[in-house]
Structure formats: structure tokens, C-alpha cells
């Protein structure tokens, strides 16, 4: 029994990570009034943006590497288990309607598959072979980003090992600066959020940090790929009434046209916001604007530059 009690193999090996340490600031978590309980958690949450800020130089490198490869036909693969994997699935899914991104450009691989989105799949995160299988088709033009709060998830480790063997760019997003896996990736992204308010519950600060890293990375990647105009979502897919109204608003904001005039331009453009924007900014006819966008790879700024007399 003694060997098991002190971290023997029957009960797993203790994880060496700040995320598993006890938080001295929240020891009274179960004894304080509800308002104070919430304030304790909120005080810990406020530490996350500062921790994320320290990772931005490495994140910038990852964005640039990913943009280069996606522009050449490569893909970005997120790999994670539990909260990490679920956040990855959400981020990847939201890129399709927000930026009119084609399927297969940014993909998420969740340990345990789609069923793990709604409930835990026992043992899924410990399956390194499944991690390898998840990215078995990647190549040198692809990017594999592992997400693991403790930096040791076998599913993620297996994926990174496989990606490395196939010459893909690799990265790890972790809240553990001591993670051994950091030595095996091209781009280490450490967001040291420290001990959680509830010891070991990495869906709290570590999860928040991963969400910030993911949406910052993917938004910056879309900007670098030319899927925005200024800070406007000109690639949005108008699939419902709210988004159709938003496309009119975006055209108004980008051009200074009135809503009726913007709506008329969009109608002439067949509802394509990018085509309408090039038309409004250059005076081009729909066919001319569409052709300019095709030549520019869908980048509005380049299409406008090429079309303007």
C-alpha cells in the first residue's frame, strides 16, 4: 500500500506542474460566504491575461509559420483532451462561418472523438497511439498544435511525436513551464497561470488561458491570410437574418455609405460582401470586382489596389 500512496505506478505518477499545486490564496474556499467565494475565483481569473501576454512573442512566431504554410495549401491541427480538446473544437468550428474558411484548413482532434464533447471518455487522454493516428496524414506543410495544461497528456504527446517524424511544425500550449514535452516542439507556448483556485481544476485559469491563446492565434491567422478588411469581418457567411443585417452594417462601416445604398450594392453583388466592398471602394462592376478578388486570392485590400485606377 505504501508504494501506491506515494505515487507508485498503480495510481499514476504525480504531475510536476504549477497547475497541480495548492493555492495558498484560496484555502478557505469552502468556508467563506458566496460573494467572497466568487471574488476569490475572480481574483485568480484576473491573473490570466498577464500570463498570456508573456507568451505573445512565441505566439507571433507560430502565427507567421502557420500563415506561410496555410497559404501554400497546408493545414493547422489542434490536438487536445478534455477541456483543452473541447476548446479546440469550438475554435476550429467557429472559423468556417466567421471567415468563410474552407473545411480542412483548421481541424481539431479531441481525445475520445465527438462523443467526448458532451461527456468524458474514460482513458482517452492516456492513449498516445490514438494521438499518433489523429495526425497520421500530416506533412511538412502542416502545423500541429498540442494543448495540454499540465504538458504531459499522452494523447497530445503521441500526436506531437508523429507530427515531428513527418516534418510538420509543432507547438505546445501549456501552463506548465516544467513540461518535458516543451523540449520536443518547434514553438513552445507557456502560459504560467499558477495554482488553480480549486486545486488541479485546469478548466479554470489554465482553460481560460487556452481559450485566449486559441482565439488570438486563429484571429491573427485569419488577418494574416487576408480574411479581414481593417478590423471588419468581411469574410463572414450570412447564414441568418442577424448576419445578413451585419453584412450591411460592415459595408456601411467600411465605406461610409448609407444602409439603403449598402443594401443595394450587396444586392448587385449577389450578397457577397467582399465583392460588394470592392465595388463600393473602386466603382467596379460586379464581374470586375469578382475577377479582382479571384486574382488576389480573396484578399480585399489587394483586389482594391489592383482595381483602383
From TrEMBL:
- One Pfam match, given by its short name, reads GKRP_SIS_N
Q: Does the keyword Lyase apply?
A: yes
Q: Where is the composition biased (Basic and acidic residues)?
A: 19-28
* Any one biological process term the GO annotation gives: peptidoglycan turnover
Which Enzyme Commission numbers does its entry carry? 4.2.1.126
From the UniProt entry, list the residue stretches annotated as the region Disordered.
1-29
- Domain of life of the source: Bacteria
Query: In this protein, which residues make up the domain named SIS?
Result: 66-227
Which InterPro entries does this UniProt record tie to the protein? Etherase_MurQ, Glucokinase_regulatory_CS, MURQ/GCKR, SIS_dom, SIS_dom_sf
- Enumerate the active-site residues: 94, 125
Q: Keywords for this entry?
A: Carbohydrate metabolism, Lyase
Pathway connected to this protein: Amino-sugar metabolism; N-acetylmuramate degradation
Instruction: Give an example GO molecular function.
Output: ether hydrolase activity
Which reactions is this enzyme annotated as catalysing?
Answer: N-acetyl-D-muramate 6-phosphate + H2O = N-acetyl-D-glucosamine 6-phosphate + (R)-lactate
Q: How does it assemble?
A: Homodimer.
Which family is annotated?
A: Belongs to the GCKR-like family. MurNAc-6-P etherase subfamily.
Instruction: Describe its function.
Output: Specifically catalyzes the cleavage of the D-lactyl ether substituent of MurNAc 6-phosphate, producing GlcNAc 6-phosphate and D-lactate.
**Other observations noted:** A lyase-type mechanism (elimination/hydration) is suggested for the cleavage of the lactyl ether bond of MurNAc 6-phosphate, with the formation of an alpha,beta-unsaturated aldehyde intermediate with (E)-stereochemistry, followed by the syn addition of water to give product.
This protein is called N-acetylmuramic acid 6-phosphate etherase
Q: Which organism is it from?
A: Bogoriella caseilytica
Gene, per the UniProt record? murQ
Amino acid at each position: 500500500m505504501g508504494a501506491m500512496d506515494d505515487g507508485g505506478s498503480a495510481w499514476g505518477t504525480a504531475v510536476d506542474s504549477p497547475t497541480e499545486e495548492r493555492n495558498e490564496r484560496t484555502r478557505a474556499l469552502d468556508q467563506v460566504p458566496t460573494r467572497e467565494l466568487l471574488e476569490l475565483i475572480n481574483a485568480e481569473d484576473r491573473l490570466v491575461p498577464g500570463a498570456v501576454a508573456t507568451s505573445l512573442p512565441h505566439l507571433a512566431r507560430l502565427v507567421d509559420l502557420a500563415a506561410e504554410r496555410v497559404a501554400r495549401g497546408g493545414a493547422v491541427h489542434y490536438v487536445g483532451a478534455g477541456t483543452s480538446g473541447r476548446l479546440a473544437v469550438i475554435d476550429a468550428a467557429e472559423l468556417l462561418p466567421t471567415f468563410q474558411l474552407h473545411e480542412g484548413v483548421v481541424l481539431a482532434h479531441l481525445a475520445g472523438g465527438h462523443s467526448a464533447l458532451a461527456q468524458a471518455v474514460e482513458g482517452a487522454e492516456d492513449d498516445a497511439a490514438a494521438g499518433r493516428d489523429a495526425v497520421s496524414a500530416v506533412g511538412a506543410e502542416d502545423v500541429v498544435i498540442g494543448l495540454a495544461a499540465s504538458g504531459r497528456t499522452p494523447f497530445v504527446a503521441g500526436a506531437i511525436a508523429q507530427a515531428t517524424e513527418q516534418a510538420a511544425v509543432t507547438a505546445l500550449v501549456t501552463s506548465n513551464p516544467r513540461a518535458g514535452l516543451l523540449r520536443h516542439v518547434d514553438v513552445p507556448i507557456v502560459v504560467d497561470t499558477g495554482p488553480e483556485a480549486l486545486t488541479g481544476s485546469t478548466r479554470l485559469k489554465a482553460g481560460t488561458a487556452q481559450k485566449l491563446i486559441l482565439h488570438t492565434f486563429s484571429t491573427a491567422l485569419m488577418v494574416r491570410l487576408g480574411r479581414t478588411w481593417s478590423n471588419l469581418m468581411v469574410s463572414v457567411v450570412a447564414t441568418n437574418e442577424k448576419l445578413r443585417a451585419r453584412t450591411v452594417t460592415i459595408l456601411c462601416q467600411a465605406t461610409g455609405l448609407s444602409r439603403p445604398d449598402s443594401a443595394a450594392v450587396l444586392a448587385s453583388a449577389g450578397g457577397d460582401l467582399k465583392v460588394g466592398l470592392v465595388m463600393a471602394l473602386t466603382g467596379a462592376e460586379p464581374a470586375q470586382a469578382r475577377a479582382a478578388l479571384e486574382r488576389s486570392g480573396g484578399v480585399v485590400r489587394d483586389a482594391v489596389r489592383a482595381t483602383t485606377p
